[in-house]
Write a structure and sequence with these properties.
The chain has nine helices and 19 strands. The relative contact order is 0.16. The radius of gyration is 21 Å and the shape is globular. With about 400 residues, it is α+β, with helices and mostly antiparallel strands.
Length: about 400
């Protein structure tokens, strides 16, 4: 958006791609829609596997659901590895005139009289270079060191999530290599979700596990647990992931003892729990602003949406030569997301007690009008379109 308007735009990325990331590799209809607003047609990406819906597991019960279409006019969803999606996004940015520096870390903001004027950047050789900028967009993820240097902090009274995932080869494929013919046949190409996670004391946890087939024949297995769960601080997510892999091994023909690599885990701030989300010359987006879904921890569509909103604000600031336009950003985020986040926090807090959580999960895993409404919120909560 900015680069296309002739504004010099630089992306500083600490990672060298492909990078490991705690992600279920699912793009639900909301994420597919949001990416299409950027010009990314997920269906056209190599490695995108169409997902017909979800299979919900709760104890011995199973139920199938299609993706709720919401306001998008479609209910298309896909699984796609994050390295493929990352490559598509970087390629798109560079095609539109963005300069991307990977393997470079923005270690500290340049601040003059309270105004952010760019960033000090450490290159691969360890050398520090200063990159001046009129405006700075903070998008360095859940553990945002750059954001904290500017005073951002997480509201500790609000929930957060912890997630972990790993990869396994299906049908004994030793490397998870190309298995296109198998992927087309696999378990109706659906996401399997497990809503009967328990802690060490046997009590239910507010969270879910997943098993996601990928077009290369591998299986992404992982889980997310919310911090409002009883006994949350004592859970061992690595052990829980191993248990889940054993549980799904027969259905998905994997060897649970032979993952394709070590698991990746991390904490996810939720529901706009990180702030302030801007200043006189900088804005904060994505996980750095704690923008992920309050119930599911899903973040792709929220990261793209907050980035789009920030882009419109910055474009307006350049157009009008008026830095005070940035002051509209918090209000625009609130207009778009506040009610969604508020409902999510209410649901997670009400569901925290095991006596409430058990019947709540049972209803969610079944078919009822209440379950339909919760699913619609969980998957389409950020659905209101932002103008192009």
């Amino acid at each position: 958006m900015l680069a296309e308007a002739g504004i010099s735009t630089l992306v500083i990325e600490r990672q060298i791609f492909p990078r490991p990331k705690t992600c279920g590799d699912v793009l639900d209809p909301a994420a597919v829609h949001q990416l299409s607003q950027l010009g990314v047609n997920v269906a056209d990406l190599d490695g995108a596997l169409p997902l017909t819906g979800m299979r919900i597991h709760h104890l011995q019960r199973r139920s199938d659901r299609v993706w709720p279409a919401g306001p998008f006019g479609h209910n298309h969803a896909y699984s796609i590895r994050r390295d493929v999606l990352d490559h598509a996004l970087i390629t798109l940015a560079e095609t539109r005139g963005v300069r991307v520096l990977t393997g470079h870390e923005a270690v500290a903001p340049i601040v003059e009289r309270g105004f952010v004027k760019g960033a000090s950047v450490r290159g691969p050789d360890g050398h520090i270079t200063e990159f001046p900028a009129r405006f700075t967009l903070v998008a360095d993820g859940a553990n945002s060191r750059f954001g904290r240097a500017l005073g951002t902090y997480r509201n500790r009274d609000w929930p957060y999530a912890t997630s972990i995932r790993g990869y396994w080869a299906q049908q004994g494929t030793p490397s998870g290599g190309p298995r296109m013919n198998y992927a087309a046949e696999t378990v109706a190409a659906r996401v399997n979700l497990y809503f009967d996670l328990t802690g060490v004391d046997g009590r239910p946890l507010l969270g879910y596990g997943w098993a996601v087939p990928l077009v290369d024949g591998s299986l992404n297995i992982g889980l997310t647990v919310l911090s409002t769960s009883h006994g949350f601080r004592s859970i061992n997510t690595t052990a829980m992931l191993a248990d889940l892999a054993r549980r799904v091994s027969a259905d998905h023909r994997i060897d649970p003892q032979s993952p394709l690599g070590p698991p990746v885990s991390g904490r996810i701030p939720l529901g706009g729990s990180v702030g302030p989300n801007g200043g006189p010359t900088h804005l904060v987006v994505g996980d750095a602003a704690g923008s992920a879904n309050s119930l599911t921890g899903a973040g792709v569509e929220y990261a793209v949406a907050t980035g789009q909103i920030a882009g419109h604000v910055l474009a307006r600031a350049f157009e009008t030569h008026d830095v005070t336009v940035l002051q509209s950003y918090p209000g625009l985020l609130s207009e778009r997301f506040a009610s969604t986040y508020r409902r999510g926090r209410m649901i997670t807090q009400l569901s925290a007690h095991p006596r409430i959580l058990r019947p709540a999960i049972r209803h969610l895993a079944g078919t009822s009008r209440v379950a339909d409404r919760v699913w619609e919120y969980a998957l389409n909560g950020s659905a209101r379109q932002w103008p192009q």
